[in-house]
Design goal:
Blueprint (H helix, E strand, L loop, with lengths): L1 H18 L5 H15 L2 H4 L3 H17 L3 H10 L3 H15 L2 H7 L6 H4 L1
């Protein structure tokens, strides 16, 4: 039980270090998979890889969309209005889940409460 706790806390620490950019994302993925194998090999068999791939694609799509000059200009204009941010986030959330549109809109607005 103590070994399991150490592995889980170690994994959480590496995830935090990855978020803070002290550890690379690839390093975090490799360490996470290694920890999952140490805990139980059945964990990797029970992962729903199709949903994981779907969310990866959502974030790749948001990244590509945010590089569009037209969309960047549009979001800069609409980001100043709370209602625009609110309704755009509701609209996009119907197609892309909740988190990716938040990542898309957050750099263009100070109305964060409208995103959540």
């Amino acid at each position: 039980m103590k070994k399991l706790l150490v592995l889980v806390l170690g994994g959480a620490l590496f995830a935090l270090l990855s978020i803070l950019k002290f550890v690379s994302l690839l390093g975090n993925i490799l360490i996470s998979v290694g920890i999952a194998c140490l805990i139980s090999r059945k964990i990797l068999q029970s992962v729903d890889y199709s949903i994981l791939l779907t969310f990866i694609c959502f974030f790749v799509a948001i990244s590509n969309i945010s590089n569009s000059n037209f969309l960047v200009q549009l979001l800069k204009q609409t980001g100043n209005n709370t209602y625009h941010v609110y309704f755009i986030s509701i609209f996009l959330s119907q197609f892309l889940s909740n988190v990716p549109p938040t990542f898309l809109l957050a750099p263009f607005t100070n109305h964060y409460y409208a995103l959540f």
